[in-house]
What does this fold into?
Amino acid sequence: MRRTKEKVIEKLLAASGLMTILTTAGILVILIYESSRFFIDVSIWEFLTGTEWTPLFSKKEFGIWPLLSATFLTSLIALLVALPVGLSIAIYLNEYANRNFRKTVKPMLEVLASVPTVVYGFFALTIVTPFLQQFIPGLAGFNSLSPGIVMGIMIIPMISSLSEDALFAVPRTLRDASYGMGATRFQTVFRVLIPSASSGIIVSVILAVSRAIGETMIVAIAAGQQPNFTFNPLVPVETITTYIVQVSLGDVPRDSLEYRTIFAAGMVLFLLTFVMNNISLWLKRKYHRQYE
Amino acid sequence: MNRTKKNRLNDSLFKYFGILNTLLGLIMLAVFIFIILQTGLSRLSWDFITSLPSRFPEKAGIYTALIGTFWMLALTIIFSVTLGVSAGIYLEEYARKGFFSRMLEINISNLVGVPSVIYGILGLALFNRYLGLGGSLLAGSFTLSLLIIPVIIVTTRESLKAVPRTIKEAAYALGATRWQAISRQLLPAASGSIVTGIILALARAIGEAAPLIVVGALVYVPFIPNSPLDDYTLLPIQIFNWTSRPQPEFQVNASAGIIVLLFLTFVLNGISIYLRNKWQKKVKW
It folds into this structure.
């Protein structure tokens, strides 16, 4: 009796574990099935090389590049903000700050990541854009600059905490050897610690960019809904994620070609983040082994 | 200036640069929140919280959105905690180290990194259409649960890992079965930090808008949901809707809505920090 109960419980728990596999399988099956139906009507070549994206207009073009360029541009701006700031925070907390300061500041930084993204979107649209418009006359009301900056603020804690772990993992002996040679903290950080922790720092960067690429509400609110193939940060653009939200909000007929575009766009988004996440997982395993 | 001096200068300059950067993000956030409070606080009133949405900004309130958010949170807790904690227990305590468990681990690390809007697409195809749940609370909460289950699994495993092996071995020595050892010793011992992790995951879930818009949450719902099969809207979606309107009065409404949303998020985060500290003080292995 007791043994059957044990077996049943184990099976139930295993079933929950299996659920996670089914989730991944579900995502893959749906994206592949629905986008393959999309690619019956639109050639993959046109999709991957076209620079016009107008599925919701009467003259339809299905080139993904305008959405891709916007996605890359906003993520790049976010990274340009978050990498220097996040990395200096990691260095400061690890090498300069005293323990109490670190203990108070770390949870406070996590607050930056816990603010809902629609709130960040509101900040970008109603505070940052008007503020920047005072200095940059050509800045449109919707643009990729201010959501990019705000997204950068959001991913600061991601870069700082992961880089801090990487810096922390550098063996004491390397640090001591550097100080023993008479190097300052600054020299030790930039010539010894950062090079040794580089793979960990790269992991933090890849994960942060992957997060930025998948971020939706900030760009949907503040970057606009105009698919522009441009790398000009001052004009309205539309990212992949914004497009998916735009179609979901509109009344596009079900089972139409327009409707299936979100699955094709979703497929591209999924592949981008999937590749980045796996590169970072692989690097992480590699550098963990390095110091063991 | 000789080289030593220059090096020392660099060193101390970088120190200030570091402090500046550490405070930069926090100061920006403080400024943002200050501006939000300034615009939104005057709009915030009991009327605002208990009014239905409206075309007229001065009459509109967040009642339906708030009730929708609570419904969503309750349903999501039920599904995600049951499945997430069970899967976590299985992976940590039952699964043999081998190909299958390795696969599960890689899979979960990957799921954590999938953008939330992709979960929305999954929910749209699977729950909204194939299961025919439409834009109901049930479809939305299933989707949101899938989104946070990987996080809950990871927390559960780490919490169980932190319980010393001796406790489990003592239970076995007294003749406990595996499930008895887990349910009566390990889980109670790990519960504090599991709950902390769950609340953190919920704090994240409460602010999600994108996946639920894709699954079919509505932007305008003039009634409150009465069952899990009803249509709904959520606080973040209501804020998004007001933000995207041109009239400045709606921006004020959005600010007031944001104050409520931030309040809920920070309360949840606060509870989890409180629990964590309390737990760390109480238990010393």
